Backbone:
C-alpha cells in the first residue's frame, strides 16, 4: 500500500483527497515502476488539484506532472531496478497517473536519467518549472549567439518573477552575466528577487494593461510565463533583433499583439513547450541545470511540504501566494 493524491469525479462534483492505494491499481499501460521520493507543485498541478480548469482528462487520476525517484521494476530495455530517474510532462498527471504519489508506473520512454550531481530533492526543487526555465534560457542563448549579442549588453526581462519559472530563470540568467529585470505583482518580494540576481524589480502593472503596438526599445530578451497583455507589451518593447521566450499563460491565453515588432524590429517569439519536448532537448536541459544551477539560491527558493500539505498548496499557487518552488517529500 502507498499514499497518493487521488482525483475523482462523483455525482456530487470534483474531489481531490489523500488516499491509500495498492500497487495493483497503478496503470497497466506503463512498463516501468518507480518509487517516488520527491515531487513538486506546479501551476498546472494547482489547476488539477482544485479542478478550476479541465486539466485532468480521465478519472480517477493521480495528479503531479513530474517526479524523481528510483526504478523498482522495469520491462523497458533502458532501465533496471535501482536506476535514478526523473519525469516531466508527457501528459502525466493529466491523462496518465502522475507524481503526487509514493509509487508511479509510467512508460520508460518518458524517463530521463537523473544527472549524477543532482539529488532527487534538488531535481524537484527545479522540477518542470526549472526545466522550462532552462529551455527558455537555452532558446535565448542560441538566438543571442547567432545574433552576436554578448552577456551584459542589455537588459533581460523576466515576468512572473516570483514564481517557479521566473525564480529559476533569474538565477540562470544572472549567473550567465546578464542584467535581469524582474517583473512581479508582489513588491514585498523585491529583496528576494535581488538575492537571486535581479538587477532591478518593476511592478507587473507596467506590463499587464493594454499598450501601444510598438514601444520604446528596452529588452534584448524576455522570459515570459504570463501571456496576454504582458507578453504583447514585452514583444512591443523588445530591442531590434531581440527574442522573447514564451512558456506560460498566468494572465491569459490570448495575445492582443501587433505584427509591428516582428516586421519592423525583426524580433523573434519562441514558443517553449516542456510537455512533449524531444528527449534530446530534455536531457540537454537537465544536464545544463545540473552544471549551472546555483545550489544556495536553489535552496533559498525551495520550501518542502508533505503530500497532505499539497492539497492546500493547489489553491495557493493559483492565487499567486507561493514564492519559488514547493517540493513534496514522499519518503515520509
Residues:
Amino acid at each position: 500500500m502507498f499514499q497518493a493524491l487521488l482525483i475523482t469525479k462523483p455525482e456530487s462534483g470534483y474531489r481531490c483527497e489523500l488516499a491509500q492505494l495498492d500497487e495493483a491499481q497503478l496503470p497497466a499501460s506503463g512498463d516501468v515502476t518507480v518509487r517516488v521520493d520527491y515531487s513538486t507543485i506546479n501551476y498546472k498541478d494547482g489547476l488539477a488539484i482544485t479542478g478550476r480548469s479541465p486539466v485532468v482528462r480521465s478519472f480517477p487520476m493521480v495528479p503531479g506532472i513530474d517526479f524523481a525517484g528510483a526504478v523498482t521494476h522495469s520491462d523497458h530495455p533502458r532501465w533496471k531496478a535501482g536506476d535514478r530517474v526523473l519525469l516531466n510532462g508527457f501528459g502525466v498527471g493529466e491523462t496518465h497517473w502522475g507524481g503526487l504519489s509514493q509509487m508511479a508506473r509510467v512508460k520508460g520512454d518518458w524517463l530521463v536519467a537523473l544527472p549524477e550531481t543532482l539529488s532527487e530533492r534538488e531535481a524537484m526543487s527545479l522540477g518542470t518549472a526549472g526545466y522550462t526555465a532552462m529551455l527558455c534560457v537555452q532558446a535565448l542563448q542560441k538566438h543571442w549567439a547567432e545574433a552576436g549579442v554578448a552577456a551584459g549588453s542589455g537588459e533581460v526581462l523576466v515576468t512572473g518573477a516570483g514564481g517557479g519559472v521566473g525564480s529559476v530563470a533569474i538565477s540562470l540568467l544572472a549567473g550567465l552575466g546578464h542584467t535581469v529585470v524582474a517583473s512581479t505583482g508582489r513588491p514585498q518580494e523585491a529583496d528576494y528577487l535581488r538575492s537571486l540576481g535581479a538587477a532591478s524589480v518593476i511592478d507587473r502593472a507596467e506590463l499587464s494593461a493594454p499598450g501601444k503596438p510598438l514601444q520604446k526599445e528596452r529588452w534584448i530578451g524576455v522570459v515570459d510565463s504570463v501571456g496576454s497583455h504582458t507578453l504583447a507589451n514585452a514583444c512591443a518593447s523588445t530591442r531590434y533583433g531581440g527574442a522573447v521566450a514564451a512558456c506560460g499563460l498566468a494572465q491569459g491565453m490570448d495575445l492582443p499583439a501587433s505584427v509591428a515588432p516582428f516586421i519592423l524590429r525583426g524580433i523573434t517569439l519562441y514558443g517553449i513547450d516542456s510537455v512533449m519536448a524531444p528527449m534530446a532537448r530534455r536531457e540537454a536541459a537537465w544536464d545544463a541545470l545540473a552544471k549551472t544551477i546555483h545550489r544556495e539560491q536553489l535552496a533559498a527558493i525551495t520550501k518542502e511540504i508533505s503530500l497532505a500539505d499539497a492539497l492546500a498548496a493547489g489553491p495557493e499557487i493559483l492565487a499567486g501566494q507561493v514564492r519559488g518552488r514547493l517540493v513534496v517529500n514522499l519518503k515520509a
